[in-house]
Amino acid sequence: MGDFNLALVIVAIVVCVLVFIFNVYLLVNYQHPDDKNQAYFPKFVVVLGLSVAAISILMLPADVANRQACRHAIYNGACNLTLPMKDLWLAVYILDAVLVFFVIPFAMFYYEGDQDKSIGKRIKSALLWVVTTAIVCGLVLGILYGLVGKVDFTVRHLSSSTTTFPNSWDFSSSQQCIGNGARQCSAYLASASSEKTWTMRTTFPEYVVALATIVGSVLFSIFGGVGIACLPLGLIFEFIRRPKAVITRSQYIKEATELGKKARELKKAADALHQEERSGSKGRKWRKNVKAVEKELLQLEEDVKLLEEMYPQGEKAETSWALTVLGYLARLVLGILGLIVSVAWVAHIVIYLLIDPPLSAFLNEVFIKLDDVWGLLGTAAFAFFCFYLLLAVIAGAMMLGLRLVFITIHPMKWGATLMNSFLFNVALILLCSISVIQFCSTAFGYYAQATAAQEIFGHTLQSLRGIKYLYKYNVFQIAFVVLAGLTFIYYAGFGWRRKKPSGRFQLSS
After folding, report:
1. Across residues 369-378, what is the average pLDDT?
2. Residues 6+ apart with CB under 8 A from 312
3. DSSP string covering 133-197, please?
């Protein structure tokens, strides 16, 4: 058994190294050419943040495997050789909160600072903002922890007398306890007066994790509910809207001329906004116009990409067109598979979480049966469903960010992603990863029972004073399902259409 635990430690170390290498690969290939050989601190924060997010998702399957490490132990103390998962969970999520609320904002303020200023002044300005944020957050957390940082567990007081060991056992529904007389030893038949509330103060790290989970749960309910539908349907409708054939050269010239005209209009609008910024007139109307220009620019880039697909050029034009066709076929296949997973997720939430008592354990039973086939097959499927949920959150954030003016747009593009966009998306992933883990530990409570994650995100979080009612009445789960249904209706009615940019800018000058 000790050898098994040692193998689990080795696997955990290898996975952490692989995650770090993969995130470095993403950074190198996604970064903008302007950021090469500079902005090393934001790059370090990006790699660290992505690694923490990925490792936190993988920790839940590791927690399940760690729980099973001493299940069949033949000697006492075998469980002392397993990984200290509760301490690891708290360490990872405290690091998560520090990155989201302090380190990443500092890196963004420093990166977006006036390039004409010296490094010292940019650091001073960024620190001023971060220290102010830290003081406010510290005061809020301290006051809340002092006032309501307690957990209220509902328990039943049961009692029974004792007697000598009998020769035979004679129990029935009328006599469920040892000895004569009515005793409260059955939780099912005990009176309401036997129910009591056991109150205790939670630890401060657990309280910080709980509040961060609440913030992430709000974003998770919105972005995850939208993303669980738009992630697969977006891929399917991309296939439906695909270019059916190569256009002629005259059509290409006509479309390219129109796009060039729109590009000049965008450049003129961007120059005007830049002049307003220099003059110091950055009001509400200016920010609205910046958002509009960003949306038009993203749409223009999509139009350019589509035009290049419809009229491939160069010596390998036929090969390029063949790869384009295969790419859209791959989107269709992935979209269909993703739609199956999304439907399974929504059905599981309704069947297992929203209906009381649950109609079935559903996916929990699937994972258990897969474990019976091969030890790690169920754990791998479990990890896949958790990762898919995180991908849905990212897809939902990008989908809403492109349609709502008040959300900052930070698209991730291969070879053209600036560090501020990287940092924003990493903060979003980190913030939502806490809620994804909490949601998965609840949704798969039967499969992940008796784990450290369930102790933190199940019993403690769902009994925390002032917060427990959000989980008692399934507020986040209901919002998730409702938004998923509305998004599905939206895509069914309008998703197949391709929206064209308005091309209108309300410049204040």
Report:
1. 76
2. 246, 318, 320, 321, 324
3. HHHHHHHHHHHHHHHH-EEEEEEE-------PPPSS----SS--SSSSS-----TTT--GGGEEE
CA angle 316/319/324 to nearest 5° reads: 125
Q: What is the pLDDT of residues 405-436, one digit of tens each?
A: 455 556 667 767 778 778 888 888 888 887 88
Q: What is the mean pLDDT of residues 82-92?
A: 75
Q: Are strands 150-156 and 195-201 parallel, antiparallel or unpaired?
A: antiparallel
Q: Give percent of the chain with pLDDT exceeding 90.
A: 6
Tokens of 254: 């006509």
> What pLDDT was estimated at residue 197?
74
Amino acid at 175: Q
Rounded distance between C-alpha atoms, residue 239 and residue 399, angstroms: 17
Instruction: Name the one residue in this structure whose structure tokens are 């998703």.
Output: 495
Rg (the chain; Cα; Å): 28
For the chain, give the number of residues.
Answer: 509
Q: List CB contacts of 322: < 8 A, sequence separation 6 or more.
A: none
pLDDT at 97 exceeding the cut of 70? yes
The burial class, CB within 10 Å (0-12 / 13-18 / 19+), for 113 is middle
